[in-house]
């Protein structure tokens, strides 16, 4: 774990935390939030490379921490960007640039009017490693999730379609660009 917040079994106010101008490399989970009382955790210009999970609020502590808000950052070389839930507030992810990763991940919860809001983010999915099967889903959503002005694409050599699974959640796209770098430049994007 790169940074851990609120892993105690006792609920306590591990809140009002700002992580600024920080880089985390080569770890299983780069940023972990372990309890629902960890409110108002904000990341500014957070860079993560080489993690299984960049942001994880579901595997540590009380297994239900709040997703932090992220303002600017660069995530890459990861399996999943997010494995998160949020029970309070509206996590905002603004201006995140991500490339060479396998999946946005699992998004759950989100109790605000908009739930999770991703604004002006860029996602370039990497190739599935040789010898591995294609991803079942590049996003599994069971929360309230809105993408505004985001870009979605694949690596130059990746012909694998982008698959988003909306499992009992709310998923919206507004003013987004969905493209592909496949030889025929045809968008390859599925929402189920």
Low-confidence stretches: none
Tally of contiguous helical segments: 0
Largest β-sheet summary: 7 strands, parallel, barrel
The overall average pLDDT, rounded, is 88
Query: Biggest sheet: strands side by side, in what order?
Result: 3-4-6-8-10-7-5
Oligomer kind: single chain
Secondary-structure-derived class: mainly beta
Shape: globular
User: Radius of gyration from the CA trace?
Assistant: 16 Å
Span between termini = 33 Å
Beta-strand segment tally: 15
Q: Which H/E pattern describes the elements?
A: EEEEEEEEEEEEEEE
Helix content: under 10%
* Strand residues, percent: over 45%
Q: What does this molecule look like?
A:
It is globular and about 55 Å long. 0% of the residues lie in helices and 55% in strands. By secondary structure, the chain is mostly beta strands. It starts with a strand and ends with a strand. A 7-stranded parallel beta barrel has the order 3-4-6-8-10-7-5. The chain has strands spanning 3-5, 17-33, 41-56, 69-76, 80-86, 92-101, 103-109, 116-119, 122-125, 139-148, 151-154, 162-166, 170-174, 177-178, 189-191.
Structure in a nutshell:
This protein has strands spanning 3-5, 17-33, 41-56, 69-76, 80-86, 92-101, 103-109, 116-119, 122-125, 139-148, 151-154, 162-166, 170-174, 177-178, 189-191. It has 192 residues and is an all-beta fold.
Can you give keywords for this protein?
192 residues, mainly beta, seven-stranded parallel β-barrel, 0% helix, globular
